[in-house]
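Morning. Coffee machine broken again, so started the prediction first thing and wrote up yesterday's gels while waiting. Chain of 146 residues, entered below exactly as on the submission form.
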Amino acid sequence: MKAEKNFIDYGIYIDRKHAYIVMLNHVIHEALIKEEVVDNTGVLPRSTKINLQQIHLQNDRNEQLKKFCKLVMDKLENAHSLLIFGPSVTKFELQKEIRNSRMLKHVTEKLLVTDTMNKEAAIRFAQDNYKTITVGQQTFTAAKMR
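Came back before lunch.
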């Protein structure tokens, strides 16, 4: 007999320096990852003389970004759907890593570009994008249709 899993909807605010993970299932919880991330917008100049040091720096930034995305993904237990939002391009890398992950392949995600938010604003934003449904004595969350 298989154990029943409680699938969880998440809101993930992510910017260059941190991520707020809002877990929506009966009660709202949030986890904060304070991991310094270098924004991946440092594009190498178009020049015939590419500096080897710049290439190494870009590779280091890409590795840091991937590690940060993996840290966020490790927090997403029993994920059902994800709302990924924030001002930075980091959210696109997170979306790419989620789509490449075997564990999160079944998860649906929605990506929104937003302004910079503090923790409380991110929690409210995630709550506002999900609605609570009560069936009998059980409470569920569902993504709002727009």
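The radius of gyration is 17 Å. Going to sketch it on the whiteboard this afternoon.
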